[in-house]
Design goal:
With 237 residues, the chain is an alpha/beta fold. The chain has one domain (14-232): Rossmann fold, CATH 3.40.50.970. Helices cover 36% and strands 19% of the residues. It contains eight helices and nine strands. It has a seven-stranded mixed sheet with strand order 2-1-3-4-8-7-9, sandwiched between helices. A hairpin with a 5-residue loop joins strand 5 and strand 6 (121-122). Helix 1 crosses helix 6 (171-189) and helix 3 crosses helix 4 (92-101). The protein is globular. The N and C termini lie far apart (34 Å). The model has no long low-confidence stretch (mean pLDDT 95).
């Protein structure tokens, strides 16, 4: 981590996730051999907080940039850090095809159910009944459709070798998130295929809740729609 003031809102989960990524990289001894790719979104300034190489990608094109980096520098630890608007909306095709090709990448997917950077609009991951700035009558399945469960979709692809959904709503879940990120990075370093960790993260600002109640919402509401746990176990190749 660098010594820099945060631009994230109070109670945002990105700061926790950033720290976990850094701890894992330190534990693996990979700081000088890591390249991250961050997209447009709340994490657009990730390079301000990480003291290792970080590239910026056009909105949704993060997996494509990471693919190029990994193919040119296969010995590096390459990962993307993406929000749900970037990964599950404009970048849906990119992430699915990267998984289909079995690119040897790791993905840290932050799911807070809204477009945080641009005003709290409805995202593909917004749950039924949730109010956002563009779903003021809440998200309705007959009008706005159902939330997209990216991990479950990706699990059928042979090139995808490890998928897990975790959360940041409690200290115990934070530790599970760290273990999952480490497992994803180790999967890549072992030369296996594509892996992703989806992290349920709070957005107090656009949920209209204080930080404590935001964490409670993840535990009591969000995790019921997006069940925690391993969706596809890491496999040997």
């Amino acid at each position: 981590m660098t010594d820099a003031p945060t631009h994230y809102c109070p109670g945002c989960g990105h700061g926790i996730a950033h720290r976990l990524v850094c701890e894992v990289i330190d534990e693996l001894g990979m700081r000088e051999n890591t390249i991250a790719v961050a997209p447009v979104g709340c994490a657009v300034l990730a390079y301000d907080y990480w003291d290792f190489d970080t590239l910026e990608a056009a909105h949704g094109r993060t997996p494509a940039v990471a693919t190029g980096v990994k193919r040119i520098l296969p010995e590096k630890l390459v990962f993307t850090y993406q929000g749900d608007g970037d990964l599950a909306a404009i970048g849906t095709a990119e992430i699915i095809h990267a998984g289909s090709r079995g690119e040897k990448l790791s993905v840290v997917f932050i799911n807070n159910g809204v477009y945080g950077m641009t005003g709290g609009q409805m995202a593909p991951t917004t749950i039924i009944g949730q109010t956002t700035s563009t779903s003021q009558y809440t998200r309705r399945s007959d009008k706005e459709g159902f939330p997209i469960k990216i991990l479950e979709m990706m699990s059928v692809l042979p090139g995808v070798v490890y998928l897990e959904r975790t959360s940041l709503h409690s200290p115990g879940e934070v530790l599970k998130t760290k273990r999952a990120i480490k497992r994803s990075f180790e999967t890549q370093l072992e030369g296996k295929g594509f892996s992703m960790v989806e992290v349920l993260s709070p957005c107090p600002t656009y949920w209209g809740l204080d930080p404590v109640r935001s964490m409670e919402r993840i535990e009591k509401v969000i995790s019921k729609e997006y069940p925690l746990g391993v969706v596809k176990p890491a496999i040997a190749v």
